[in-house]
Amino acid sequence: MKIRPLHDRVVVRRMEEETTTPGGIVLPGNAQEKPQQGEVIAVGEGRYVDGQLRPLSVKTGDKVVFGSFAGNTVKVDGEELLIMTENEIFGVLEG
């Protein structure tokens, strides 16, 4: 199943975080914070501003940074994804 976001929304897959601290302590699943970085897997067509369609600044494949409580979590084919607006994305990781 594929998901196509509407308007200025993007679908993001969270990046996996390390499960071991630098000191070698393994963190259980419930003690870990959810990562605030992810990969954009789908983008909407954009938002209408003054009657003109303004495309989004992010594209599929971009690595992005977002806030702790950004977006809404949905399950698609057993995988947890985030759907958020472009405004909830702080920046694109480059390099």
From TrEMBL:
> What family classification does the UniProt entry report for this protein?
Belongs to the GroES chaperonin family.
Query: PANTHER family, alphabetically?
Result: 10 KDA HEAT SHOCK PROTEIN (PTHR10772), CO-CHAPERONIN GROES (PTHR10772:SF58)
Which Gene Ontology molecular function entries are recorded, alphabetically? ATP binding; metal ion binding; protein folding chaperone; protein-folding chaperone binding; unfolded protein binding
Q: Which domain of life is it from?
A: Bacteria
Q: From which residue to which does any coiled coil extend?
A: none
Outline the subunit composition. Answer: Heptamer of 7 subunits arranged in a ring. Interacts with the chaperonin GroEL.
By which gene is this protein encoded?
groES
Main localization of the protein described in the UniProt heading = cytoplasm
**Record keywords, A-Z:** Chaperone, Cytoplasm
- What name goes with this protein? Co-chaperonin GroES
Q: What functional role does this protein have?
A: Together with the chaperonin GroEL, plays an essential role in assisting protein folding. The GroEL-GroES system forms a nano-cage that allows encapsulation of the non-native substrate proteins and provides a physical environment optimized to promote and accelerate protein folding. GroES binds to the apical surface of the GroEL ring, thereby capping the opening of the GroEL channel.
InterPro entries cross-referenced by the UniProt entry = Chaperonin_GroES (IPR020818), Chaperonin_GroES_sf (IPR037124), Chaprnonin_Cpn10_CS (IPR018369), GroES-like_sf (IPR011032)
Provide the Gene Ontology terms for cellular component.
Answer: cytoplasm
| SMART domains in alphabetical order | Cpn10
> Which cellular compartments is it found in?
Cytoplasm
